[in-house]
Amino acid sequence: ELSEQIRSNQSKCIEEIRAMCYNLSHTDFDTTDFPNALKQLCATFKKLANIEIRLSIPDETDFSFLNCDKSLNIYRLVQECLNNIYHHAKAQEVTVFLRNSSNKSGLSIFITDDGCGMDERLVNLLNEHSGRIITRDGSEHFGVPGTKERIHLLAGELIFNSMPGAGTEVIIYI
User: Is 97 left (phi over 0), alpha (psi -120 to 50) or beta?
Assistant: First the structure.
């Protein structure tokens, strides 16, 4: 029985390492292919996490102001949000919605889930400038500081909204 449990854990570890390697590999896409890269990301997430996901990008959304570096950073931001949902939210459904800002020179991204949500203390920590998260066992999570760094590079804004039992909404303004 112990041997089977070890094999099962080993298989899960290998699966997660492969997913991390895939997620860390440099994704080559140009600005015109950005929506398709997001579609592929969402399809991969759905398969890996077994969570229903809806990606909504209105046809008139303009990405022409994004260069490859900005596109890749936005892709990685969405990827990190989906990764957090997979590992922490216990969600059944996720929605990713992108649209241009009212003056068409920016992008608004809304990522919502129907998961377990977060308490006010954690939301406040996430919305602080540093976004540094230390767990109860004293270990540090690196996803949020990395996300904050990407937001800074894009001169954007990141907002977390959540309540226990009510899911989470992440809003990204670029």
Answer: beta
